[in-house]
Design goal:
Radius of gyration: 25 Å
Helix content: over 70%
Strand content: under 5%
Number of strands: 0
Number of helices: 17
Distance between the termini: 44 Å
Number of domains: 2
Largest sheet: none
Amino acid sequence: MSGIIDEGSWLFAAAFVFVLSFGRSNSLPTASLIAPLLLLAAAFVPVAILGVCWFAHAGSFGVVARRDYGPLLTCVLMAWAGAHVPATLGALALPAFLPIWWLLGKLLFVIFALCGVRTLFGASWPASVASVVLATGAVAVGVWLYDRFGGILSFLWSPFVLYFLYRAFASDLSDLGSTFRTRQNMRRQLEMATVNPHDADPHYQLGLIYQQRHQYSEAIRRFERAVEIDPDLTDAHFHLGLMAREQGRLEDALNELTTAVRQDDKHSSSDVWREIGAVHLSAGRLPEAEEALRKFVGRRAYDPQGLYLYGQTLEELGRGDEARQFYQQCVEAAQTAPSHRRGEVRKWEKMAQERIR
């Protein structure tokens, strides 16, 4: 999916789907041949983007759709084609098991689409699964509607209708395509820029892309190359620490975060101190965790995650009354957070409420 995002073409993917639809049953009317394209483009992709905006808090639907519709459409079309190639070949070879091959194609499509959503948006597995399930439900509704009203789609092949649709939507399609091409060109330019042995920034930028896609091995390689070129690149040390902490490599995380804080005591709005405190807390070093988190909370008194971690540290130190106070502050901070951050901080609010109870 990462390769499709970087090098794919939605026109090629659409042609692949159309040809495969024709090969599966060349006796179907033309309207039936374009049904997969219409359902995926008009139902699955928009609803999947809506699901990502809801469940992964990726941003407003309009912004995300304009930015990511083209890449997601390409991923989804290639997922559909890739899933139905083995199913189609199996159905041709063993037609007696046609229901099994049909089910296999649908199952593979859902799995491939799930990988596409997670890779493109960097969403968690639960958010990706919820988005794909929602989009699959939209397709099921679309199929139901198509079975009853699909015959009227034959008018789309009228030259007059095609010309009208072209005039009405050409600019929108061009914008979606240009946004996708711009992203791919930027990725290629970053790769070309890495040939300069004295420029760390392209490696750092590529590391961010791979980190967002959950390709941690490649992201770590890029960040390590960036700090090899420029040891004072604080951002790269910080992100290496974040990924090491996620992977449970606590000592590596502490080394990278300590380097970052040594270079910039207030890096990333002092988030570096919260991460250092979280590493110490995970390692059971409570006095060190309390010191780091106290410093962070003193600077960021309305950060729900920092307040929760500080409360947890105080609770494990046996200072229950102080811990309850910071859990309550965490709940208040989450409830008064800006609307665009409510979903992001809701989990800390719930965890703090459980601790209070």
